Amino acid sequence: MTPDPLTPRQQQVLQFIRSFFAAHGYAPTIVEICEGLGLSSSATVHKHLRMLVEKGHVDALPRRSRGLQVKAPRAPAGGGVDVPLLGTVTAGRPIEMSDWNETITLPECMVGRGETFVLKVRGDSMIDEAIRDGDLVVVEKRDSAPNGEMVIACLDHEQVTLKRLYREGPRVRLQPSNPAMPPILVEGCDVTIKGVVIGVLRRYRPMS
Amino acid sequence: MTPDPLTPRQQQVLQFIRSFFAAHGYAPTIVEICEGLGLSSSATVHKHLRMLVEKGHVDALPRRSRGLQVKAPRAPAGGGVDVPLLGTVTAGRPIEMSDWNETITLPECMVGRGETFVLKVRGDSMIDEAIRDGDLVVVEKRDSAPNGEMVIACLDHEQVTLKRLYREGPRVRLQPSNPAMPPILVEGCDVTIKGVVIGVLRRYRPMS
DNA sequence: TGACATTCGCCTTTTATTCGCCTATAGTAG
DNA sequence: CTACTATAGGCGAATAAAAGGCGAATGTCA
Q1: Exposed/middle/buried for residue B207 (C-beta within 10 Å: 0-12, 13-18, 19+)
Q2: pLDDT digits (tens, 9 = 90+) for B73-87
Protein backbone atom coordinates (compact mmCIF):
# COMPACT_ATOMS: atom_id res chain seq x y z
CA MET A 1 0.00 0.00 0.00
CA THR A 2 2.56 2.54 -1.09
CA PRO A 3 1.23 6.08 -1.19
CA ASP A 4 1.24 8.10 -4.38
CA PRO A 5 4.58 9.01 -5.90
CA LEU A 6 6.00 12.37 -5.00
CA THR A 7 7.55 15.06 -7.14
CA PRO A 8 11.16 15.93 -6.30
CA ARG A 9 10.15 19.06 -4.48
CA GLN A 10 7.58 17.25 -2.43
CA GLN A 11 10.18 14.70 -1.41
CA GLN A 12 12.44 17.49 -0.27
CA VAL A 13 9.70 18.94 1.87
CA LEU A 14 8.89 15.56 3.35
CA GLN A 15 12.52 14.87 4.04
CA PHE A 16 12.95 18.21 5.72
CA ILE A 17 10.00 17.62 7.99
CA ARG A 18 11.40 14.25 8.95
CA SER A 19 14.80 15.50 9.92
CA PHE A 20 13.40 18.54 11.65
CA PHE A 21 11.17 16.38 13.73
CA ALA A 22 14.02 14.05 14.53
CA ALA A 23 16.18 16.94 15.62
CA HIS A 24 13.67 18.95 17.64
CA GLY A 25 10.99 16.59 18.78
CA TYR A 26 8.27 18.67 17.20
CA ALA A 27 7.18 19.51 13.72
CA PRO A 28 8.45 22.59 11.92
CA THR A 29 6.30 25.60 11.17
CA ILE A 30 5.61 26.45 7.57
CA VAL A 31 8.00 29.38 7.71
CA GLU A 32 10.72 27.14 9.08
CA ILE A 33 10.24 24.85 6.13
CA CYS A 34 10.49 27.87 3.85
CA GLU A 35 13.84 28.79 5.31
CA GLY A 36 15.03 25.24 5.25
CA LEU A 37 14.34 24.97 1.53
CA GLY A 38 15.34 28.50 0.64
CA LEU A 39 11.85 29.60 -0.33
CA SER A 40 10.29 32.93 0.44
CA SER A 41 6.57 32.37 0.40
CA SER A 42 4.69 30.34 2.93
CA ALA A 43 1.99 29.86 0.36
CA THR A 44 4.33 27.71 -1.69
CA VAL A 45 5.11 25.43 1.18
CA HIS A 46 1.49 25.28 2.15
CA LYS A 47 0.62 24.10 -1.32
CA HIS A 48 3.22 21.36 -1.09
CA LEU A 49 1.87 20.33 2.26
CA ARG A 50 -1.61 20.01 0.90
CA MET A 51 -0.26 17.73 -1.78
CA LEU A 52 1.58 15.63 0.80
CA VAL A 53 -1.59 15.27 2.84
CA GLU A 54 -3.58 14.38 -0.25
CA LYS A 55 -1.08 11.75 -1.24
CA GLY A 56 -1.16 10.34 2.24
CA HIS A 57 2.38 10.92 3.38
CA VAL A 58 1.53 13.34 6.13
CA ASP A 59 -1.25 14.04 8.57
CA ALA A 60 -2.07 17.59 9.49
CA LEU A 61 -4.17 18.94 12.30
CA PRO A 62 -5.79 21.86 10.56
CA ARG A 63 -5.00 25.31 11.91
CA ARG A 64 -2.87 23.88 14.63
CA SER A 65 0.54 25.24 15.17
CA ARG A 66 3.18 22.70 14.34
CA GLY A 67 0.34 20.34 13.68
CA LEU A 68 2.12 18.20 11.16
CA GLN A 69 2.55 14.54 11.74
CA VAL A 70 4.52 12.49 9.32
CA LYS A 71 2.75 9.24 8.85
CA ALA A 72 4.75 6.32 10.09
CA PRO A 73 6.75 5.36 7.03
CA ARG A 74 7.86 2.24 8.83
CA ALA A 75 6.40 -0.67 10.68
CA PRO A 76 4.23 0.51 13.52
CA ALA A 77 6.30 -1.95 15.55
CA GLY A 78 7.86 1.10 17.08
CA GLY A 79 11.07 0.92 15.12
CA GLY A 80 13.05 1.34 18.28
CA VAL A 81 13.72 -1.28 20.90
CA ASP A 82 14.82 -0.64 24.46
CA VAL A 83 17.70 -2.71 25.69
CA PRO A 84 19.56 -2.53 28.99
CA LEU A 85 22.93 -0.85 29.24
CA LEU A 86 24.58 -3.26 31.65
CA GLY A 87 27.93 -1.69 32.31
CA THR A 88 31.50 -1.64 31.18
CA VAL A 89 33.69 -4.37 29.82
CA THR A 90 37.37 -3.77 30.21
CA ALA A 91 40.00 -5.96 28.71
CA GLY A 92 40.37 -8.05 31.80
CA ARG A 93 38.29 -6.71 34.61
CA PRO A 94 34.79 -7.77 35.53
CA ILE A 95 31.77 -6.00 34.29
CA GLU A 96 30.97 -3.16 36.56
CA MET A 97 27.48 -4.39 36.98
CA SER A 98 25.94 -1.02 36.93
CA ASP A 99 22.93 -0.55 39.11
CA TRP A 100 22.17 2.33 36.86
CA ASN A 101 19.28 0.52 35.30
CA GLU A 102 19.83 2.51 32.22
CA THR A 103 18.36 1.51 28.94
CA ILE A 104 19.09 2.68 25.47
CA THR A 105 16.85 2.65 22.44
CA LEU A 106 18.35 0.79 19.51
CA PRO A 107 17.26 0.67 15.91
CA GLU A 108 15.33 -2.47 15.22
CA CYS A 109 18.02 -3.65 12.84
CA MET A 110 20.64 -3.60 15.59
CA VAL A 111 18.80 -5.94 17.91
CA GLY A 112 19.49 -9.66 18.08
CA ARG A 113 17.04 -12.49 17.93
CA GLY A 114 17.33 -13.34 21.59
CA GLU A 115 17.96 -11.26 24.66
CA THR A 116 20.08 -8.28 23.78
CA PHE A 117 22.06 -5.89 25.92
CA VAL A 118 24.71 -3.22 25.55
CA LEU A 119 28.14 -2.83 27.10
CA LYS A 120 30.59 0.00 27.00
CA VAL A 121 34.09 -0.94 25.92
CA ARG A 122 37.12 0.21 27.86
CA GLY A 123 40.53 -0.15 26.32
CA ASP A 124 41.83 -0.76 22.86
CA SER A 125 42.01 -4.52 22.88
CA MET A 126 39.81 -4.78 19.79
CA ILE A 127 41.29 -1.96 17.81
CA ASP A 128 41.88 -4.14 14.75
CA GLU A 129 38.20 -4.95 14.70
CA ALA A 130 37.43 -1.27 14.40
CA ILE A 131 36.19 -1.17 17.98
CA ARG A 132 37.57 1.64 20.07
CA ASP A 133 37.75 2.75 23.62
CA GLY A 134 34.39 4.17 24.57
CA ASP A 135 32.38 2.37 21.91
CA LEU A 136 29.20 0.57 22.85
CA VAL A 137 28.89 -3.05 21.77
CA VAL A 138 25.53 -4.66 21.22
CA VAL A 139 25.55 -8.19 22.60
CA GLU A 140 23.15 -11.04 22.02
CA LYS A 141 22.94 -13.29 25.03
CA ARG A 142 24.11 -16.83 24.31
CA ASP A 143 25.96 -19.53 26.19
CA SER A 144 27.92 -20.81 23.25
CA ALA A 145 29.32 -19.41 20.06
CA PRO A 146 30.73 -20.63 16.76
CA ASN A 147 34.45 -20.59 16.24
CA GLY A 148 35.92 -17.20 15.43
CA GLU A 149 33.06 -15.11 16.79
CA MET A 150 33.55 -12.03 18.88
CA VAL A 151 32.25 -12.84 22.32
CA ILE A 152 31.82 -11.58 25.84
CA ALA A 153 33.57 -14.27 27.83
CA CYS A 154 33.80 -14.84 31.56
CA LEU A 155 36.78 -16.47 33.26
CA ASP A 156 36.60 -17.93 36.77
CA HIS A 157 33.33 -16.10 37.27
CA GLU A 158 35.48 -13.06 37.70
CA GLN A 159 37.09 -11.57 34.69
CA VAL A 160 34.88 -10.53 31.82
CA THR A 161 36.44 -9.67 28.51
CA LEU A 162 35.67 -8.93 24.91
CA LYS A 163 37.66 -11.23 22.63
CA ARG A 164 37.48 -13.46 19.61
CA LEU A 165 36.86 -17.09 20.47
CA TYR A 166 38.86 -19.97 18.98
CA ARG A 167 38.50 -23.56 20.10
CA GLU A 168 41.71 -25.51 20.12
CA GLY A 169 40.99 -29.03 21.17
CA PRO A 170 40.08 -29.11 24.84
CA ARG A 171 41.27 -25.57 25.24
CA VAL A 172 39.95 -22.22 24.21
CA ARG A 173 41.94 -19.28 22.91
CA LEU A 174 40.61 -15.81 23.63
CA GLN A 175 42.28 -13.58 21.09
CA PRO A 176 42.42 -9.80 21.39
CA SER A 177 42.44 -7.96 18.12
CA ASN A 178 45.42 -5.91 19.02
CA PRO A 179 48.86 -7.20 18.06
CA ALA A 180 50.27 -5.68 21.23
CA MET A 181 48.19 -7.93 23.42
CA PRO A 182 48.70 -11.64 23.99
CA PRO A 183 45.94 -14.21 23.63
CA ILE A 184 44.55 -15.99 26.65
CA LEU A 185 44.62 -19.79 26.63
CA VAL A 186 42.35 -21.60 29.07
CA GLU A 187 40.62 -24.92 29.58
CA GLY A 188 37.21 -24.96 27.98
CA CYS A 189 35.54 -25.63 31.31
CA ASP A 190 36.97 -22.46 32.81
CA VAL A 191 35.31 -20.12 30.41
CA THR A 192 31.65 -19.26 30.05
CA ILE A 193 30.21 -17.38 27.15
CA LYS A 194 27.97 -14.51 28.05
CA GLY A 195 27.04 -13.47 24.57
CA VAL A 196 28.07 -12.65 21.04
CA VAL A 197 28.80 -9.17 19.75
CA ILE A 198 26.38 -8.30 16.98
CA GLY A 199 26.84 -4.58 16.67
CA VAL A 200 28.77 -1.47 17.56
CA LEU A 201 27.74 2.10 18.35
CA ARG A 202 30.11 4.99 18.52
CA ARG A 203 29.45 8.59 19.41
CA TYR A 204 32.03 11.21 18.56
CA ARG A 205 32.02 13.98 21.09
CA PRO A 206 32.04 17.40 19.48
CA MET A 207 35.34 19.18 19.63
CA SER A 208 34.84 22.72 20.86
CA MET B 1 -1.35 5.57 19.63
CA THR B 2 1.12 8.38 20.11
CA PRO B 3 -0.22 11.34 22.05
CA ASP B 4 -0.72 14.60 20.27
CA PRO B 5 2.40 16.52 19.42
CA LEU B 6 3.46 19.29 21.74
CA THR B 7 4.53 22.80 20.95
CA PRO B 8 8.00 23.79 22.10
CA ARG B 9 6.63 25.69 25.07
CA GLN B 10 4.48 22.80 26.13
CA GLN B 11 7.50 20.55 25.97
CA GLN B 12 9.36 22.94 28.21
CA VAL B 13 6.60 22.84 30.77
CA LEU B 14 6.43 19.08 30.65
CA GLN B 15 10.17 18.83 30.95
CA PHE B 16 10.17 21.14 33.94
CA ILE B 17 7.54 19.08 35.71
CA ARG B 18 9.55 15.96 35.05
CA SER B 19 12.78 17.28 36.47
CA PHE B 20 11.03 18.90 39.40
CA PHE B 21 9.41 15.64 40.25
CA ALA B 22 12.66 13.79 39.89
CA ALA B 23 14.40 16.26 42.18
CA HIS B 24 11.76 16.63 44.89
CA GLY B 25 9.60 13.57 44.75
CA TYR B 26 6.45 15.62 44.36
CA ALA B 27 4.90 17.72 41.68
CA PRO B 28 5.47 21.47 41.51
CA THR B 29 2.79 24.06 42.20
CA ILE B 30 1.70 26.25 39.35
CA VAL B 31 3.59 29.21 40.77
CA GLU B 32 6.73 27.13 40.99
CA ILE B 33 6.39 26.31 37.33
CA CYS B 34 5.96 30.01 36.65
CA GLU B 35 9.23 30.79 38.37
CA GLY B 36 10.97 27.89 36.73
CA LEU B 37 10.07 29.15 33.29
CA GLY B 38 10.42 32.83 34.05
CA LEU B 39 6.73 33.61 33.69
CA SER B 40 4.70 35.92 35.84
CA SER B 41 1.14 34.77 35.53
CA SER B 42 -0.19 31.53 36.88
CA ALA B 43 -2.94 31.73 34.33
CA THR B 44 -0.43 31.18 31.57
CA VAL B 45 0.92 28.04 33.14
CA HIS B 46 -2.53 26.81 33.90
CA LYS B 47 -3.43 27.15 30.27
CA HIS B 48 -0.42 25.11 29.30
CA LEU B 49 -1.33 22.48 31.82
CA ARG B 50 -4.81 22.20 30.40
CA MET B 51 -3.28 21.61 26.99
CA LEU B 52 -0.98 18.95 28.38
CA VAL B 53 -3.92 17.19 29.99
CA GLU B 54 -5.92 17.47 26.81
CA LYS B 55 -3.10 16.01 24.79
CA GLY B 56 -2.75 13.22 27.26
CA HIS B 57 0.70 13.80 28.60
CA VAL B 58 -0.30 14.61 32.14
CA ASP B 59 -3.02 13.74 34.64
CA ALA B 60 -4.28 16.34 37.07
CA LEU B 61 -6.31 15.89 40.22
CA PRO B 62 -8.54 18.92 39.98
CA ARG B 63 -8.26 21.54 42.67
CA ARG B 64 -5.69 19.58 44.54
CA SER B 65 -2.46 21.09 45.61
CA ARG B 66 0.45 19.67 43.63
CA GLY B 67 -2.07 17.43 41.99
CA LEU B 68 -0.14 16.82 38.83
CA GLN B 69 0.84 13.38 37.71
CA VAL B 70 3.06 12.95 34.72
CA LYS B 71 1.90 10.09 32.61
CA ALA B 72 4.05 7.43 31.04
CA PRO B 73 7.41 9.19 30.97
CA ARG B 74 7.49 8.96 27.25
CA ALA B 75 5.69 7.19 24.48
CA PRO B 76 8.67 6.50 22.22
CA ALA B 77 10.41 4.86 25.14
CA GLY B 78 13.61 6.21 26.58
CA GLY B 79 13.97 8.48 23.66
CA GLY B 80 14.44 6.87 20.30
CA VAL B 81 14.62 9.42 17.55
CA ASP B 82 13.77 8.82 13.94
CA VAL B 83 16.25 10.13 11.42
CA PRO B 84 16.30 9.73 7.67
CA LEU B 85 18.56 7.20 6.01
CA LEU B 86 19.56 9.23 2.99
CA GLY B 87 21.68 6.85 0.98
CA THR B 88 25.19 5.68 0.39
CA VAL B 89 28.44 7.59 0.46
CA THR B 90 31.22 5.99 -1.51
CA ALA B 91 34.75 7.23 -1.50
CA GLY B 92 34.27 9.32 -4.60
CA ARG B 93 30.87 8.80 -6.04
CA PRO B 94 27.79 10.89 -5.40
CA ILE B 95 25.27 10.04 -2.79
CA GLU B 96 22.70 7.76 -4.26
CA MET B 97 19.94 10.03 -3.13
CA SER B 98 17.69 7.25 -2.14
CA ASP B 99 14.05 7.69 -2.82
CA TRP B 100 13.62 4.98 -0.27
CA ASN B 101 12.22 7.31 2.33
CA GLU B 102 13.62 5.08 4.95
CA THR B 103 14.16 6.21 8.46
CA ILE B 104 16.01 4.58 11.29
CA THR B 105 15.47 4.96 15.01
CA LEU B 106 18.56 6.12 16.86
CA PRO B 107 19.24 6.29 20.56
CA GLU B 108 18.83 9.83 21.80
CA CYS B 109 22.50 10.01 22.65
CA MET B 110 23.48 9.43 19.04
CA VAL B 111 21.53 12.36 17.65
CA GLY B 112 23.10 15.72 16.98
CA ARG B 113 21.88 19.10 18.03
CA GLY B 114 20.75 20.13 14.59
CA GLU B 115 19.33 18.19 11.70
CA THR B 116 20.66 14.69 11.68
CA PHE B 117 20.74 11.99 9.05
CA VAL B 118 22.39 8.67 8.38
CA LEU B 119 24.50 7.45 5.46
CA LYS B 120 25.81 4.02 4.63
CA VAL B 121 29.53 3.85 3.98
CA ARG B 122 30.92 2.06 0.97
CA GLY B 123 34.62 1.32 0.80
CA ASP B 124 37.42 1.26 3.28
CA SER B 125 38.67 4.81 2.98
CA MET B 126 38.20 5.46 6.69
CA ILE B 127 39.55 2.18 7.97
CA ASP B 128 42.01 3.86 10.31
CA GLU B 129 39.11 5.67 11.94
CA ALA B 130 37.56 2.35 12.76
CA ILE B 131 34.89 2.89 10.13
CA ARG B 132 34.34 -0.04 7.82
CA ASP B 133 32.61 -0.89 4.62
CA GLY B 134 28.93 -1.22 5.37
CA ASP B 135 28.92 0.86 8.54
CA LEU B 136 26.31 3.57 9.02
CA VAL B 137 27.57 7.02 9.89
CA VAL B 138 25.42 9.49 11.78
CA VAL B 139 25.82 12.96 10.31
CA GLU B 140 24.84 16.31 11.74
CA LYS B 141 23.97 18.74 8.99
CA ARG B 142 26.30 21.74 8.89
CA ASP B 143 27.80 23.94 6.23
CA SER B 144 31.13 24.41 7.91
CA ALA B 145 33.32 22.42 10.22
CA PRO B 146 36.31 22.93 12.48
CA ASN B 147 39.72 21.82 11.30
CA GLY B 148 40.36 18.12 11.57
CA GLU B 149 36.73 17.03 11.76
CA MET B 150 35.34 14.11 9.84
CA VAL B 151 32.95 15.53 7.28
CA ILE B 152 30.68 14.69 4.40
CA ALA B 153 32.07 16.92 1.67
CA CYS B 154 30.75 17.69 -1.78
CA LEU B 155 33.00 18.52 -4.73
CA ASP B 156 31.69 20.25 -7.85
CA HIS B 157 28.15 19.45 -6.73
CA GLU B 158 28.93 15.96 -7.93
CA GLN B 159 31.21 13.87 -5.85
CA VAL B 160 30.31 13.28 -2.25
CA THR B 161 32.86 11.76 0.07
CA LEU B 162 33.61 11.00 3.68
CA LYS B 163 36.96 12.45 4.72
CA ARG B 164 38.77 14.40 7.36
CA LEU B 165 38.91 18.12 6.66
CA TYR B 166 42.07 20.19 6.95
CA ARG B 167 42.29 23.81 5.90
CA GLU B 168 45.59 24.77 4.33
CA GLY B 169 45.49 28.44 3.52
CA PRO B 170 43.14 29.01 0.61
CA ARG B 171 42.97 25.31 -0.07
CA VAL B 172 41.34 22.41 1.65
CA ARG B 173 42.78 18.96 2.11
CA LEU B 174 40.35 16.07 2.26
CA GLN B 175 42.24 13.27 3.93
CA PRO B 176 41.15 9.65 3.82
CA SER B 177 42.09 7.64 6.87
CA ASN B 178 43.65 4.89 4.84
CA PRO B 179 47.36 5.05 4.11
CA ALA B 180 46.72 3.45 0.73
CA MET B 181 44.62 6.39 -0.43
CA PRO B 182 45.88 9.82 -1.39
CA PRO B 183 44.43 13.02 0.00
CA ILE B 184 42.40 15.35 -2.20
CA LEU B 185 43.56 18.96 -2.46
CA VAL B 186 41.09 21.52 -3.75
CA GLU B 187 40.35 25.21 -3.62
CA GLY B 188 38.17 26.11 -0.70
CA CYS B 189 35.48 27.45 -2.98
CA ASP B 190 35.14 24.13 -4.78
CA VAL B 191 34.08 22.18 -1.74
CA THR B 192 30.87 22.37 0.24
CA ILE B 193 30.39 20.76 3.60
CA LYS B 194 27.25 18.72 3.97
CA GLY B 195 27.70 17.73 7.57
CA VAL B 196 29.92 16.40 10.31
CA VAL B 197 30.13 12.77 11.34
CA ILE B 198 29.05 12.41 14.95
CA GLY B 199 28.53 8.69 15.26
CA VAL B 200 28.89 5.24 13.79
CA LEU B 201 26.65 2.17 13.77
CA ARG B 202 27.79 -1.28 12.76
CA ARG B 203 25.82 -4.46 12.51
CA TYR B 204 27.66 -7.78 12.34
CA ARG B 205 25.76 -10.24 10.28
CA PRO B 206 25.60 -13.61 11.95
CA MET B 207 27.91 -16.17 10.43
CA SER B 208 26.03 -19.32 9.62
C1' DT C 1 -7.00 31.95 57.03
C1' DG C 2 -3.55 30.85 53.72
C1' DA C 3 -1.83 28.61 50.01
C1' DC C 4 -3.35 26.86 46.18
C1' DA C 5 -5.93 26.08 41.70
C1' DT C 6 -9.12 28.07 38.57
C1' DT C 7 -11.58 31.47 35.72
C1' DC C 8 -12.21 35.88 33.26
C1' DG C 9 -10.97 39.51 30.24
C1' DC C 10 -7.74 41.44 27.34
C1' DC C 11 -3.57 41.86 25.07
C1' DT C 12 0.68 40.55 21.39
C1' DT C 13 3.03 37.36 18.54
C1' DT C 14 3.19 33.39 15.84
C1' DT C 15 1.30 30.42 12.44
C1' DA C 16 -1.81 28.48 9.03
C1' DT C 17 -4.62 29.48 5.38
C1' DT C 18 -6.49 31.80 1.35
C1' DC C 19 -6.39 34.80 -2.73
C1' DG C 20 -4.59 36.59 -6.97
C1' DC C 21 -1.05 36.49 -10.06
C1' DC C 22 3.45 34.96 -12.31
C1' DT C 23 6.78 31.54 -14.83
C1' DA C 24 8.18 27.45 -16.75
C1' DT C 25 7.37 22.85 -19.02
C1' DA C 26 4.99 19.29 -21.33
C1' DG C 27 1.22 17.43 -23.85
C1' DT C 28 -2.32 17.91 -27.23
C1' DA C 29 -5.66 19.57 -30.56
C1' DG C 30 -5.88 22.38 -34.60
C1' DC D 1 4.29 24.41 -36.30
C1' DT D 2 1.26 26.79 -33.28
C1' DA D 3 -2.07 27.74 -29.90
C1' DC D 4 -4.39 25.98 -25.95
C1' DT D 5 -4.29 23.74 -21.56
C1' DA D 6 -2.82 21.47 -17.46
C1' DT D 7 0.45 21.13 -13.77
C1' DA D 8 4.46 22.00 -10.79
C1' DG D 9 6.61 25.60 -8.70
C1' DG D 10 6.84 30.06 -7.26
C1' DC D 11 5.73 35.08 -5.30
C1' DG D 12 3.55 38.63 -1.86
C1' DA D 13 -0.21 40.33 0.75
C1' DA D 14 -4.30 39.77 3.69
C1' DT D 15 -6.78 37.31 7.23
C1' DA D 16 -8.05 34.56 11.13
C1' DA D 17 -7.05 31.47 14.41
C1' DA D 18 -3.92 29.48 17.83
C1' DA D 19 -0.26 30.04 21.09
C1' DG D 20 1.62 32.58 24.54
C1' DG D 21 1.22 36.12 27.63
C1' DC D 22 -0.62 39.49 31.49
C1' DG D 23 -3.18 40.93 36.04
C1' DA D 24 -6.90 40.48 38.88
C1' DA D 25 -10.80 38.20 40.76
C1' DT D 26 -12.72 33.86 42.52
C1' DG D 27 -13.05 29.29 44.40
C1' DT D 28 -11.47 25.47 47.46
C1' DC D 29 -9.38 22.68 50.32
C1' DA D 30 -6.78 21.66 54.62
Answers
A1: exposed
A2: 444 444 566 676 777
